[in-house]
Design a protein that fits this description.
The protein is mainly β. It has no helices and ten strands. The two termini are 15 Å apart. 26% of the residues are buried. The model has no long low-confidence stretch (mean pLDDT 93). This is Nitrite reductase small subunit NirD. Keywords: 2Fe-2S, Iron, Iron-sulfur, Metal-binding, Nitrate assimilation, Oxidoreductase. Pfam families: Rieske_2. It comes from Streptomyces machairae.
């Protein structure tokens, strides 16, 4: 069963070490658009929901320029893998693994995420 996000009170949570941190309401995640959330250590996580309802969370900091902008990037797919392209320099990051699709030596942190 798929629930319409407008009719639920589900919260989006990311796993930090052994604990789950609630970061926002599911209704704040629109398909194809990112949202940034502040983490307890001062870092940021970029959250995404695709049109199929799957959730993704990666570090919001673009490793190529240091700016916290990945949540504002364009989403898409490459060879069946979901990605976000940085809005500044356009490098693409796999939303499941954090791997940069344009430079295999670069990766951002990918977080386990759920709606609960």
């Amino acid at each position: 069963m798929t629930l319409a996000p407008e009719t639920t009170d589900l919260k989006v949570q990311v796993r930090l070490a052994a604990d789950w941190l609630t970061v926002c309401d599911l209704t704040h995640l629109l398909p194809g658009r990112g949202v940034a959330a502040l983490l307890p250590d001062g870092g940021q996580v970029a959250l995404f929901r695709d049109r199929g309802g799957r959730l993704y969370a990666i570090d919001n900091r673009d490793p190529f320029c240091g700016a916290a902008v990945l949540s504002r990037g364009l989403t898409g797919t490459h060879q069946g893998r979901p990605f976000v392209a940085s809005p500044l320099l356009k490098q693409r990051f796999d939303l499941e693994t954090g791997q940069c699709l344009d430079d295999e030596a670069v990766r951002v942190t990918a977080y386990e995420v759920r709606a609960a």
